[in-house]
Design a protein that fits this description.
The structure holds two protein chains of two kinds. By secondary structure, chain A is an alpha+beta fold. Helix content of chain A is 11%, strand content 26%. Chain B is mainly beta. In chain B, strand 1 and strand 2 form a beta hairpin. The chains are: A alpha+beta, B mainly beta.
Chain lengths: 150, 65
């Protein structure tokens, strides 16, 4: 068990944080800075927004570095199911080139790593553009330490 | 350029090389302005390209073949 794993609670749910899974997709704090603020310690403030909103944003974490569970067993039926796959025409995947930063990818896509392993059904990720990430091909924030400026 | 809207979008990480993107995607700059590109693109991941975000072969001098 990673000693860096954390739990954050409010009255209704517990949010679990596993930093080893984080690829810095930045979804959480861009969507809900009142709860997820990497500049604060602790970085998760469970009083910052209503529970439904926290659930909505945690569900968007592309790697499940953030996950949530109901505190009370009676509420287990309320646990939402996996989102059904969208039918019909898919929206184009958006690839945003962040200045001095990674490629921010959003949509429905798969990624095939250098060792040929395919990750399917990804929805959001950050891909390293600077060449210095310790977690290639994903961004791990190293671009900031190397004054990457493309 | 036409992009096949039904095709699955795939990111292929080329060994010692760029990211090859195929399928249905759009490129944007930091302000969400569209960047023109071809049907498939090769995006630099070595940090040395003279034509960001596209690969220009600079990775060869950095990573070898």
């Amino acid at each position: 068990m990673d000693p860096n794993n954390r739990e954050y609670k409010n009255d209704e749910i517990t949010v679990f944080w596993r930093p080893s899974k984080c690829i810095h997709a930045t979804t959480c704090y861009r969507e809900l800075l009142e709860v997820f603020n990497p500049r604060e310690r602790p970085w998760v403030n469970m009083q910052g927004a209503p529970t439904e909103k926290i659930i909505e944003v945690v569900d968007k974490c592309p790697t499940r570095a953030l996950e949530w569970k109901w505190n009370s067993p009676e509420n287990k039926e309320k646990q939402p199911r996996e989102k059904e796959a969208a039918t019909g025409k898919e929206k184009p995947v958006s690839i945003q080139v962040m200045k001095s930063g990674p490629l921010l990818v959003e949509g429905k896509f798969s990624l095939i790593n250098e060792d040929g392993i395919e990750l399917r059904s990804l929805t959001m990720t950050s891909l390293c553009r600077c060449g210095h990430s310790g977690n290639m091909p994903f961004c791990d924030g190293s671009h900031a330490k190397h004054n990457f400026d493309l | 350029m036409e992009k096949n809207e039904q095709e699955n979008t795939r990111f292929l990480i080329l060994e010692k090389g760029p990211i090859k993107v195929t399928g249905n995607f759009r490129l944007y700059d930091k302000d969400k302005n569209p960047i023109e590109s071809g049907k498939d693109v090769y995006l630099c991941r070595c940090g040395n390209t003279s034509n960001p975000p596209f690969c220009d072969g600079s990775h060869v001098s950095l990573w070898g073949r």
